[in-house]
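Model the whole thing, not chain by chain.
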Amino acid sequence: MFVCVVIPAFNEQTTIKDVVQNLTKSLMKLDRKQFLDLQFKIVVVDDGSVDQTGFKAQGAGAMVLRHCVNRGQGAALVTGINYSLARGADIIVHMDGDGQHDSEDLKILLLPLFNKECDVVLGSRFLGQAININITKFLVLKGGVLFTRIFSGISVTDSHCGLRALTRQASLKIKIDQDGMAHASEILDKIQSNNLVFKEVPVTVRYTKYSKSKGQSIFNAYRIVWNLVWEKIYNKYCNRH
Amino acid sequence: MYIQIILLLIAVFMLGKAWDKFKRKQISQFSFGVWIIFYLIFVVVVAYPHSTTYIAHIVGIGRGADLVMYAAFILIFYTLFNIFIRLKELDKNITIITRHLSLKDAEKHFDNHDQK
């Protein structure tokens, strides 16, 4: 099984090296009896960073794809996914570049896919741990869960975790149109509409001063909602796809 | 009636500009026609301001000036909507180009890697 971990990164020079190195360590450590024929590649998509993100990621041993202009996390993710699919990935993992996610969680994330239990595995910080989360963020995320239930009709405990793993077939079916942050909701929407089998697993998300400063402002929530609703109308009536 | 003269001059100037652009093939025959109709209506309304009152009464609006305002609003919102859609498309296309370039770069890198 060839696993590609796609990490979109925009100006993450302080964390990207650690993220890639920890990830490599965690993947090397996996028990090969449980994870038969495990091969992996770490794909960092440098989304038009103005700092040393690309070099640092390359130095840490990742394959680096570079966007010459900033196109957003969703767009970077798709670039990474397309690259992975072209390289023959069997499983594609999505992960954040700011060090919020714990690379040790890869084991629990990949296991259901290696056992062919489902098509998509979603990380959930509310099943697992959300360290140092503040109350506003918590409420907005819970609002996101509720919105996802109404908008897409899919019940999850954490709709915007960002750590997820998909099989090749699922990645081919889920076409991400959202360039910005709304891709997380879009993926869930398309899991539902494609009738893919998903499983949620507990993961740890660690909020640090850095990740908080880099992370999404809660005011972006309204923009995500607007983008999603607009895209649905647009695709329905203009029928571009 | 200085304002009428000024507005008529503006209309003539804009029509001349449209004609020039059409001759240089910078705008299509269709949009040239649309601009001509637009400025002809403009000229009529400026020359005979009361004509708008007549139409306004037909559609049930009290004053001609109000009708012009409503029409302008609708036109502006329609244009805005079109620009919005164009921007969305442009955004998508930029993303596609950016992705294509980055994947092409990666391919080159990969080929070099293979040769070594």
